[in-house]
Amino acid sequence: MQHIPPTVRKGPKKHLLSRCDFYIYVCLCVLCLCGIAHTQSASNALRFDGEDAYVLLGKESSLNLTGPLTLEAWIRPTGWGEASQSGFGRILDKSVFLLFLNKTGSDYPEESVVFFMQHENGTGSGSGSPPHTIQLGTWQHIAVSYDGNGTVRLYINGVARSLSQPIGMPAGPIADNSWADLFLGESSGMNRAFEGDIGEVRIWNTVRTPAQILAHFKAGINGDESGLAGYWPMNATDPETLRDRSGNGNDGTIFRATWTDGPDFNADTDGDGVPDTEDECPSDPDKSEPGDCGCGVPDTDTDGDGVSDCLDADGDGVPDTEDECPSDPDKSEPGDCGCGIPDTDTDGDSIPDCLDPSAPPDRPRLAWPTDGLIRLSLTPELRTRDFSDPDATDRHAQTHWQISRASDFSSLIFDRTSDLRLTRLTVPRLILEEGQAYYWRVRFSDSQGDESGWAAPSVFITQTTGSDTDSDGVPDAQETGTDTDLDGNGVADSGQADMLAVKTLTGQAAIRASVAVSSLAALMAVDPADIGDTENRPDQFPLGLIGFRLETDYPGALVQVLAYFSEPLSDQTGWYRYDRLSGWQDESVYARLNGRGTLVLNITDGGTGDADGVENGIIVQIAGPDEIVPPAPAPSADSGSDGGGGGCFINTASARQFIHQ
Hints:
Blueprint: H1 19-39, E1 44-49, E2 54-58, E3 69-77, E4 87-93, E5 97-102, E6 112-118, E7 124-128, E8 140-146, E9 152-156, E10 159-161, E11 182-184, E12 195-204, H2 210-216, E13 228-232, E14 241-242, E15 252-255, E16 258-261, E17 366-368, E18 373-376, E19 381-384, E20 396-404, E21 412-418, E22 424-426, E23 437-446, E24 458-462, E25 499-503, E26 508-515, E27 519-526, E28 545-551, E29 558-565, E30 575-579, E31 583-586, E32 591-593, E33 598-604, E34 618-625
Parallel strand pairs: 18-24
Antiparallel strand pairs: 1-12, 1-16, 2-11, 2-15, 3-8, 3-12, 4-5, 4-11, 5-6, 6-7, 8-9, 9-10, 12-13, 14-15, 17-19, 19-22, 20-21, 20-23, 23-24, 25-26, 26-29, 27-28, 28-34, 29-33, 30-31, 30-34, 32-33
């Protein structure tokens, strides 16, 4: 609703106001204007198309909220958002704290508003309003506060609502977000657009009390209140800029959102005498609250039993008075398996799973990282919810883990099955690359060998660390100098296109592409002490470990790599590889000594020696030698020795046999 300034009509000169009258008139006008400004806080709004409209509010320090905060916004959604089933339309998004809508298909209540936080301790939490508290096409004021310790409060139209917290409980400060831009009407990943109108927005670095929320959700504020971090009253129609009136300079840049009318606080659509902003049933003239049956349905109790005719506890559309399974939303009759258990026949043998001794496990559900999480570690821990199976005696035997860059998993970068890592898996080093989107999913197998269906996939985006500024595949801190020439050809290893070189714990190492290798993508030194798994680990790794990722044009091929070390290797040297699913593996039979400081490594893409477990043209390995030639003892003055015997290479049969070509 546009504010229209008062009109001053001019009359004949003899009717001019006296100076005193004029001052009184001006004062009254000012008071009038001020009164309007402070009782009607939003006259305009921005309309978002649910596709590519948003406002970028920046990342000034005043918006880096990690402790107490309060978020407020007027919204009139016309859809639930860009995600196909759940919507997840963003009201506000600063990567580590989000305010968004949820329709259905997620762990949150249906047709709710959700506040999600990523905490400083690495955990995540989500708090949702009760089911069906968000209505399309209606102006509603949303407010949420967090005290920075563990208490979230959520308000709709100034009234506190109960919370559902299915993802995790709030715990401590919010993670630092100084690096992240604040978005209005869109996610930082540009894939969760809001559809509808957003009016006045306020952000505070304090917890607003319930009384303050109720008193001011329709009333305006001055913009100079204590704790105000950002204030966008939507009282201008600049097509490019949304002005911050808090004095903190958080002006927003408007991208494709358009100006429209904001909430009318006096509107009463259904004519029941209750303004829409206070009416929970704004289109039902007979109700201002949903009651038992919801808006639009009378709470009639024909049989006088104290239960409304419409009451349907499980929401399956069948009233409880006619429902033989009143607590089962999928059944109104017991069927073969009884209430609460679906009559599913997964293997198609006409015997329901509940009566079939070999029923497969239930479909898994992913727990962490939550869908759309960004700036995730390059070695994140993936977590699922607990295993369940219709057969009470079946146990969780295996989990099949998959990671892909494609949402349909048509090409995989990780494909491993584990009988140890059943509900938690830390992704091995070098599998994931920086700043990339990855999809992941799992399926369970039970002790009868039956497999579940695949879990609904989740997507995350990895962080950008900046540890390899020259993008040569070697961390900057581990770069070797121009004097490192481990292959002895007179050219620095770091300057050769088919080699990568790195500083190890006590020297240097390099790898060279040999047979069927098209490129060397990455090389890094790894400290064995950083790997807590000690089962089958050798007593020592005098040079530490190296990790590398290479590519081949022949998926599934046997490739050959030369590994050079600055110290001579003993003929007793073993080659030990580690990955989180297989643990420590002695792969000496796939290595061959080729000179005192060189090993020839034979690795099969997707097979022996490849940590990703899939024939995809990418090979990842973390391994190292466990013995070097000890330094030669200094000759004694009367030994008669020429000093060359103590460090000589012994060409005798090795206790470990290396393969030969």
